[in-house]
Design brief:
- The strands form two sheets. Strands 4-5-6-7-9-8 form a six-stranded mixed sheet, covered by helices on one side. Strands 3-2-1-10-11 form a five-stranded mixed sheet, with no helix packed on it.
- Strand 2, helix 4 (126-139) and strand 3 form a beta-alpha-beta unit.
- The protein is α/β, with parallel strands linked by helices.
- It is built from ten helices and eleven strands.
- The chain has helices spanning 2-14, 17-43, 85-106, 126-139, 154-157, 165-175, 204-227, 273-276, 289-299, 359-392, and strands at 68-73, 110-113, 147-150, 180-185, 188-193, 250-252, 303-306, 313-316, 322-325, 338-345, 348-355.
- 35% of the residues are buried.
Length: 393
Amino acid sequence: MQLLYTWRRLIMITLNWPRVLKLFFLLSLLLCYNEFLVYYFVLIQCSWPSISIEHLDADVAEGSGKPLKALFMADTHLLGPQGHWFDKLRREWQMTRAFQTAMTIHSPEAVFVLGDLFDDGQWSSDEEFKRYINRFYSMFHHSSTTALHAVIGNHDVGFHYMITQHKLDRFQKAFQSPLVKMLRIRDNIFVMINSMAFEGDRCIMCDTAKRDLEKISISLQCAQEYTSDLKDMQNKKCSAKEYFKYTKPILLQHFPMFRQSDENCSGPDSAPPEEKLKSFRPKLDALSKEASDMLLQELHPRLVISAHTHNFCYRTLQDGTPEWTVPSFSWRNNIKPSFLLVTITNNNYAVSKCYMPREWTVIWTYILGVVCILIWLVLPYRRVWTSYTRKQH
């Protein structure tokens, strides 16, 4: 009889509706924290950097407009049809929540995605590529006050030897991203390039990119002369339509500038020690030295922002130009993904790096939360069973 009574009490505990509701509430709270709130708790710790004299260009007169607030991210690598469904679900949810939380907290005026938006873009049929585009814009939707700009990456259209005109056209149609593009936002100038078009092998794509780069270089020279109030300009190539307020451009590209390795890169999201000494292959892991020198000579950028390696790097190029390499935005490619918040004026800028939640932090939070809930569930059963065994003795 005592055993029957004990089992009845155990069943009553199990079917106790207030207790079931508490269990549901605790599980919902754990899920809500790990899938929503943790992104706010982490990303709210990051803020827009303040302008200082560190990167001030004294040769350019300060503009009258307010600073531009821009977010830079890279290598989202949305998986294609061959990707595992859980990998796709988990990583894309993480990127969606991180991006939407950043939009809510920081409200950037411009977002730049520095290539490799897709993982299998170079292999995709037109129908698959359309689904890619729809998923991308669904995940990274934003308000009308934010402009999104995308740079072409090798996974979007292929490395140089894989690129076709059709692949270029469909990416350009979706993201308005030609081989070389000059973009003026407020008093700031951005030049976006297709890294794979600077192979230097005199192919049609490479020749077109070089000509477009030279046109932008001339436009910048003309703007510089006009801004300097040189009314008797000597450059006959200048035309009235090219007159705009000059400032040194910010160069945006997928491949980093030429470097031999990531040996001199540091930070928690930089390459692991065993990868830092791995030699980079020019034209595959970074731009060639010839292409890098040409870009610096033609554009004289004040800042270069690149991607591709999936790891963070900050370094100074041979002419003194700083380069920031943005790590992957996805847990799949970096254990601690991050993005950049950059405050930009026509003669100055400031950079802040924002870390996203770590995947293992979320996993351990789930494990500890479930263990605590299980302990809470088991304690009443243990008390009833202990009472029964004592009476038996």
